[in-house]
């Protein structure tokens, strides 16, 4: 039998070639199926991801819409609350001022009378009106710490600031072109200090000493006014520290604030209930809506994949069976090396061009050619 096969003509090789090409075609079809399977699996993964993303975005969007509705109501409530509190604060401040005015009325009236008495006294004694000023008492009759400080600063300004200014003006403006600039500058500064000192001594002798008793009485009045002001300030501080607002008649504002607080609590409860309902029911409904709309396509793709895998299984079995048949029918005779389409085609070419008449001669010629 083996010898008969080797004596076969080219028709035998045609049959071998046909069977080998049939197996190769099956392998190409299997490779194409595998490529399609790969692409389909990617498409399924992408579709699953797309569905999940749509579900997530839909849920997030709907949740944000619900929260936005309630948050806008909460913001509106808080704005009303702030406005009512502002009105309450203004009303309280007004009533506090009224209360302070009432409780300090006697002190305020006493201060007004003291000012009138002081002006009347100074006018009756022909004391210059500028003697009523705080600066005059600070310069000529300092008694309190702040008056002593004003006097000290005035001395510094008089004996340091003014001479320095006069010196700079003398050097750069008044006597800029003079050859005796140093002498003139010294003279100018000295003259300035002399004039200021003369004015102070003149005021001291002509005003303070002359009207000393009246000025002293005015000083006592000023002290009384200052003491009344400190007492008025203490009364205001005491009133401001009083936490009892019932005396100010702010009930309508407090009632409105309580109403707004209850409204805010109600909105917060409704929001919480809506969020709970969303998490327990609405979220699943949204998920089902997306799934109902899109899972059909996904299931079809999975069904196509399953069909394709079944076809690939059948095709793979065909390839194995055909390969086994070729190995049994041709491999044992021609050898594994010659059971390929390319080498069988070479053997056919050797027989077709007359180089060999039988299969054995074609194999010998192929080997002899060193292929």
Plain-language structure description:
This protein is an all-alpha fold. It has helices at 2-6, 10-103, 105-124, 134-140, 145-174, 181-209, 212-241, 251-334, 341-352, 359-368. It is 87% helix and 0% strand. The longest helix has 94 residues, at 10-103. It is elongated and about 160 Å long.
Shape: elongated
H and E order = HHHHHHHHHH
Look at the helices and sheets and give the structural class. Answer: mainly alpha
Span of the ends, CA to CA: 27 Å
The unreliable regions are: none
Q: How would you sum up the major sheet?
A: none
Which percent range fits the helix content? over 70%
By DSSP (H or I, 4+ residues per run), the number of helices equals: 10
Average pLDDT for all residues? 85
Any idea what the radius of gyration is? 58 Å
DSSP E strands, number: 0
| Estimated share of beta-strand residues | under 5%
Name the features.
about 375 residues, mainly alpha, 10 helices, about 0% strand, elongated
Sequence-ordered SSE layout with sheet pairings:
Blueprint: H1 2-6, H2 10-103, H3 105-124, H4 134-140, H5 145-174, H6 181-209, H7 212-241, H8 251-334, H9 341-352, H10 359-368
Helix pairs in contact: 2-7, 2-8, 2-9, 3-7, 4-5, 5-6, 9-10
In short:
The protein is 87% helix and 0% strand. The protein contains 10 helices and no strands.
């Amino acid at each position: 039998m083996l010898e008969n096969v080797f004596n076969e003509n080219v028709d035998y090789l045609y049959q071998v070639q046909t069977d080998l090409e049939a197996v190769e075609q099956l392998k190409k079809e299997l490779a194409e199926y595998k490529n399609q399977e790969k692409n389909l699996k990617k498409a399924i993964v992408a579709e699953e991801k797309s569905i999940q993303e749509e579900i997530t975005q839909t849920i997030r969007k709907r949740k944000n819409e619900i929260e936005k509705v309630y948050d806008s109501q909460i913001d509106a409530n808080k704005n009303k609350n702030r406005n009512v509190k502002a009105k309450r604060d203004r009303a309280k401040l007004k009533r506090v001022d009224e209360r302070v005015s009432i409780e300090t009325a006697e002190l305020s009236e006493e201060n007004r009378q003291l000012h009138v008495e002081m002006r009347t006294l100074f006018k009756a004694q022909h004391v210059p009106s500028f003697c009523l000023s705080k600066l005059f008492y600070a310069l000529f009759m300092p008694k309190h710490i702040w008056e002593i400080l004003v006097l000290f600063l005035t001395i510094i300004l008089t004996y340091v600031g003014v001479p320095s200014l006069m010196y700079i003006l003398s050097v750069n403006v008044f006597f800029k072109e003079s050859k005796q600039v140093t002498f003139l500058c010294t003279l100018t500064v000295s003259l300035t200090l002399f004039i200021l000192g003369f004015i102070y001594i003149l005021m001291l002798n002509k005003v303070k000493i002359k009207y000393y008793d009246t000025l002293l009485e005015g000083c006592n009045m000023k002290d009384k006014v200052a003491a009344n002001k400190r007492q008025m300030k203490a009364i205001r501080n005491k009133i401001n520290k009083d936490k009892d607002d019932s005396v100010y008649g702010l009930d309508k504002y407090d009632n409105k604030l309580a109403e707004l607080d209850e409204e805010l609590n109600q909105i917060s409860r409704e929001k919480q209930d809506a969020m709970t309902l969303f998490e327990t029911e609405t979220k699943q409904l949204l998920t089902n809506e997306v799934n109902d709309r899109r899972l059909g396509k996904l299931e079809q793709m999975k069904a196509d994949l399953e069909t394709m895998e079944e076809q690939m299984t059948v095709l793979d079995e065909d390839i194995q069976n055909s390969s086994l048949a070729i190995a049994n029918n041709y491999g044992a005779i021609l050898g594994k090396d010659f059971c390929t389409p390319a080498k069988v085609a070479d053997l056919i070419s050797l027989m077709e061009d007359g180089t060999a008449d039988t299969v054995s001669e074609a194999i010998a010629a192929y080997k002899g050619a060193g292929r």
